[in-house]
Specification:
The protein is mainly beta and about 525 residues long. The chain has five helices and 27 strands. The longest helix has 16 residues. One of its GO terms (molecular function) is serine-type endopeptidase activity.
């Protein structure tokens, strides 16, 4: 049996119809983008693959793998096997992260970190003889703290997108596997490989591939080889920003000579296996530790189950109407309150609110009984925020529920939400249009609208304008980030669009909603 694994890199592009894909870890697939790089060569850039994991015992290198969350590493099932029939497993597995040179005691820009493996999960259908269902997960003893040299790769959780991923032709492979010299590489090496017809693999291997395997290689004999097993086959997924590196395959097996053709486990075929182990393992740890303004923002919070709704569903998104005209956007934050910006909201004219994907019939509108603008709101420059109180309460469903905010009375929870928001360099701007959301990058507030002598305060956030022409961002449009909480597909609100210019490259200024939780809590209590 020949083991195969990735020893090289490549970039392809996957276009996701609904915008930002639903990913296993919100901080995935982004690199530091610096360090030496050989454009047309073999060595990988120093910080180009922060998700790479070196799997070893106390005495020997075993396989490669990828960090996919703060506590799980993805690899091939055969990497756990000490005997050829897998009746005997490797004891005392260790995962080393932040590795570029596997034989160096210290990396040039950082130290690597070791994590003991406490539990291994191998597909119950794994067949060691045929090398099918060759996938495994390793649970680490302690959680990983992300940094520039240690970050997860993206795993796409929506199995409905498998047909889209099956259309990707170009991939990246990477690893420390055997080189042309016959020796394992000390440093990470990368190469481009292309999807091949499975019949080509079948002709070389003398057996047919299954639907859960990918055949890939190149015409110049580039291939994964021994020592690369468990490593990734990945491609770039466009998300409205610069894109995220997303794993679609795991190095599994190949021909004896390692020349130009390899077999990879198709990760999208095992989404349920990954979700069941990774997400369910987090439910008991995460659910008791979060204190929210309204727990209805989660997908069946008590059971930790995920709603079966489309990826681009924002059930808290609101349009504020004056007669038949939209004057502002906003978000539902509880049964009776919508949060929006204050600038365009009249106080003496009747208003009504329409939510999410519902039709615009008279029965779907919610009348506004009271408008509460921030008492210190004077102009767009400061405190541009308002609460709209609804005449009747909203009955929650999968398609209509509030966005998540921390409890206004829990300062520690508020600090956690604010810290995560401050650390996020990319957030999701949600508007209206064919493609309603777009990843946007943070802009330095000291450089935002300086030419207009406009000072951006600490209760405001400056973000780039969405690059997508099919997404509308208007007053009150929400700025959000995914909320990792058990199995829920939820978002937390970070900001509301306050002002910007119509010019293409001008930034947008958002009200920092998390700075107003005390005021929000006071109004809602009334």
């Amino acid at each position: 049996m020949t083991t195969a694994a990735a020893c090289y890199i490549l970039f392809g592009l996957l276009f996701i119809k609904h915008g930002s894909p639903w990913l296993l870890d919100e901080d995935c697939g982004i690199t530091a983008n610096f360090g030496p790089r050989v454009m047309n060569g073999v060595p990988a850039g120093l910080l180009e693959n922060p998700w790479m994991a070196l799997i070893k015992t106390p005495t020997e290198f075993i396989c490669a793998g990828t960090l996919i969350t703060s506590q799980f590493v993805l690899t091939a099932g055969h990497c756990l096997c000490k005997s050829s029939d897998c009746t005997e497993k490797h004891p005392q597995l260790i995962v080393r992260l932040g590795v570029y040179n596997r034989t160096a005691e210290k990396e040039p820009l950082h130290n690597h970190e070791d994590f003991n493996v406490v539990t291994t999960y191998i597909s119950h259908d794994y067949n060691a003889t045929l090398q099918v269902n060759d996938i495994a997960l390793l649970r680490l003893q302690k959680r990983v703290v992300y940094k520039h040299q240690i970050r997860p790769i993206c795993i796409q959780l929506d199995s409905r997108l498998k047909s889209t991923s099956d259309a990707i032709e170009k991939f990246t492979i990477v690893g420390w596997g055997k080189m042309e010299t016959g020796n394992l590489s000390d440093i990470l090496r990368t190469a481009d490989v292309y999807r091949l017809d499975k019949n080509q693999c079948a002709d070389m291997l003398w057996y047919n591939l299954t639907d859960s395997q990918i055949c890939a290689g190149s015409s110049n004999l580039v291939d994964a080889c021994k020592g690369d097993s468990g490593g990734p086959l990945y491609s770039k997924v466009l998300d409205g920003g610069s894109g995220r590196q997303t794993q679609f395959g795991i190095v599994s097996t190949g021909v004896n000579q390692c020349g130009g053709m390899g077999v990879f486990t198709d990760v999208m075929s095992y989404v349920d296996f990954i979700k069941r182990i990774v997400l369910e393992s987090d439910i008991t740890v995460l659910l008791p530790k979060i204190d929210l303004l309204d727990e209805g923002c989660l997908d069946n919070a008590k059971l930790g189950t995920r709603a079966e709704t489309p990826p681009e569903t924002f059930p808290w998104l609101a349009q504020v109407y004056m007669e038949s005209f939209v004057v502002s956007y906003g978000v539902l934050i509880s049964h009776r309150f919508v949060l929006t910006t204050a600038e365009l909201i009249p106080e003496e004219i009747p208003l009504k609110v329409l939510f999410g994907e519902t039709s615009e019939s008279i029965m779907d509108f919610y009348e506004v009984s009271s408008v509460h603008k921030h008492p210190e709101f004077m102009s767009l420059a400061r405190n541009d925020i308002a609460l709209l109180e609804l005449e009747r309460g909203v009955e929650y469903s999968d398609l209509l529920k509030p966005i998540c905010l921390p409890s206004p009375t829990n300062k520690k929870q508020q600090e956690k939400f604010q810290k995560k928001a401050d650390q996020a360099q990319e957030l999701t701007a949600v508007g209206w249009g064919i493609r309603r959301s777009s990843m946007v990058h943070r802009v330095n507030s000291t450089e935002c609208y300086q030419e207009d002598l406009q000072e951006i305060g600490d209760k405001q956030i400056c973000m780039e304008h969405p690059k997508s022409f099919t997404s509308n961002v208007g007053s009150g449009s929400p700025l959000v980030k995914p909320l990792s909480h058990g199995n829920s597909r939820a978002f937390t609100l970070v900001g509301l669009a306050s002002f910007g210019r119509m010019q293409k490259h001008s930034p947008d200024v958002y009200t920092n909603v998390l700075s107003y939780l005390d005021w929000i809590g006071t109004i809602i209590k009334k």
